[in-house]
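Lecture notes, unit on protein representations.

Consider one protein chain, 528 amino acids long.
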Amino acid sequence: MNVLKPHLQATIWTLLRKGSSQREIARVTGIDRKTIRAYVQRFAEAEANSPGVATDLGEPTVPPRPPAAAAGSVSACEPHRTFIEAQLRLKRNATAIYQDLVDQYAFAGAYNSVKRFVARLKAREPEQFDRLEFAPGEEMQVDYGEGALTRVPGSQRYRRPRLFVATLRYSRRSFRRVVWKSSQRVWAELHEQAWRYFGGSTHYVVLDNLKEGVLKPDLYEPQLNQVYAETLKHYGVVADPARVRDPNRKGSVESAIGHTQATALKGRRFESLEEQNAFLEHWESKWAASRIHGSARRQVQAMFEEERAHLQPLPMLGMQYFDEGARTVCDDACVRVEHSSYAARPAPIGSKVLVRIYARRIEIRDLQTQELLRTHARAERPGTVVIPQEERVFNPSRETRRILAQARAIGPDASRLCELLFAAEGRVGQRKLWGIVSLASRYPRRLIDSACARALNDGVYSYGHVKAITEKLVAQALQALDVAPADANLTQQHELIRPAEEYAALFARAAAAPDPLHPRRSPEHDPQ
């Protein structure tokens, strides 16, 4: 209890004798109500121990009047409790309730009385949660947060990277990494790094419904992205996405992120991601792992040593990551991947298939069932055609006929070369045919036809060869124009050159003819 000066104690005692409430005394004197309450109790105890004896204030103590707002007193709003509770369920505030009480029930109390009564009714016990307990190696929780300010590579600017935290639920041992950008593949790679860091994987992983992990949130059948799902399958882990807007399901990792931001990274700056990751690993091993956990009352590292033996063993090979996307089977029975063609049979022409692109191979799967249809070694050079000879399609399609018609418009040699190319390669070679006929939009057709003739003589049936010859012929033609003599004498007499008199007669006759736009006027009447 605060010890007040004698004159303040006398003031409290005097006001109590006059029947003032504790609230009024606090308002007049500025003394806290808790201190006033303590002195009321002190005065009462002094009276009980020595009734009728003078106090140190110079006057006998008298039992003070119980304050108006003391415990056990009945509020003026108590008779209207049912009405007030009903209004609170309608989300109405104390002002509106007070006005209705005055209008409808002739309420004579003060607004502050209603305000205090409403505040007591609104007071609720804090929401309670059951703390879930898990066996060692059973669950890992993951989430993203914000890291410390880090210099952006190649600039003087700082910004916050994304902070990935994975926490083992039993021991609370954590793995932390910062990255600039996240994606489905980065999300899966961070999980793999965490399991390698811990020395094993857990049976379950709890995560948010972020797009890197969950494509379609659902309480019963959440849809994971395929890269993440394959990574979990490779390590024998089952994903357990938390309910939407329910972060308490993964409270351990939420607490770990807050602890990292407030203790390890607060007020720090780093020059690179590598520097921040090295600091986080040092901080985790030296400080976070050696701490005594608040609820478990045990050291985190000691609990992790117990849990380590219960983690699932890691596979010998790491996850083979891939990119995937839908592709259309072209009329040559192939799909285009990175400027190369791969056979897609038994998928029919015109259908959609799922293509997975690994580091060294290409997988073609059914778009609906994910069934594997074909596997090819990944081509190292763009423009490669990976299709067996027996699967090539040689019957001409409408596109083939359209290309051959354009080749015939260029010239006979171009038409012959395109027909031979189609006969040798089938529909797969239509891309070369398109390249040859598209040269007509940039170069003269007679030069393209001459280039095709040379290619036939050379025995090289290739779009690149035809293009190179065409460009060479164009360069030679331009060079011939540049070296032509500028002062060459013009021919004045030739059988194709008409005499100047004929041109003069033609001009005179045209001048005498009537104007076709104004038939009533002749040229000689036009104003000069």
